[in-house]
Amino acid sequence: MTAALVALAGALGAALRYLVDRTVAARLGDERPWGTFAVNVTGCLAAGLLGGASGRARDVVLVGLVGSYTTFSTYAVEVVKVDAASRPAAVGYALGSLVLGVLAAALGLALG
Predict the structure, then answer these.
(1) What own/partner pairs with CB < 8 Å and gap ≥ 24 does 7-11 have?
(2) What was the pLDDT predicted at 9?
(3) Is 29 left (phi over 0), alpha (psi -120 to 50) or beta?
(4) How much is the pLDDT for 52?
(5) Predicted local distance difference test score (pLDDT) of residue 30
(6) Reduced 3-state DSSP string for 65-112
(7) pLDDT band at 100 (very low <50, low <70, confident <90, very high)
(8) pLDDT confidence of residue 75
(9) Is residue 33 predicted with pLDDT exceeding 90?
(10) To 10 degrees, the CA torsion angle through 67, 70, 73, 74?
(11) What is the pLDDT of residue 84?
(12) For residue 1, what is the DSSP state?
């Protein structure tokens, strides 16, 4: 049952991402990824607000809705949580994800 609710919330998050992205692009233009920027920042805020929650509601809202709205929000919360345990590990995770993610995207674009 929880998986079905996460999937439903994920569909809503994806639609919300599309609507926010298109609304921002319509207002500011789409020469730059301002819509993605807005989605990532608002998603990080939502993930931060929900990060301490637990149980089914957390899974549905944080993993489903916010997780499909932006995965960057999950990354940001994880960096903060790792930082609480080990700052060097958090920095490594943050920089490694950024650098390897950009390199992987470049490789994917080159291969595609």
Answers:
(1) 7/64, 8/64, 9/60, 9/61, 9/63, 9/64, 9/65, 9/68, 10/64, 10/65, 10/67, 10/68, 11/68
(2) 97
(3) left
(4) 78
(5) 85
(6) HHHHHCHHHHHHHHHHHHHHHCHHHHHHHHHHHHHHHHHHHHHHHHHC
(7) very high
(8) 85
(9) no
(10) 40
(11) 86
(12) -
C-alpha–C-alpha distance, residues 7 and 11, integer Å? 6
Cα radius of gyration rounded to whole Å, the chain: 16
Torsion angle defined by CA atoms of residues 95, 109, 15 and 76, in that order, rounded to the nearest 10 degrees: 0
Rounded Cα distance between 103 and 78, Å, is 21
Look-up: residue for tokens 């989605």? 39
Angle ∠(67,82,77) on CA atoms, nearest 5: 25
| pLDDT for res 105 | 83
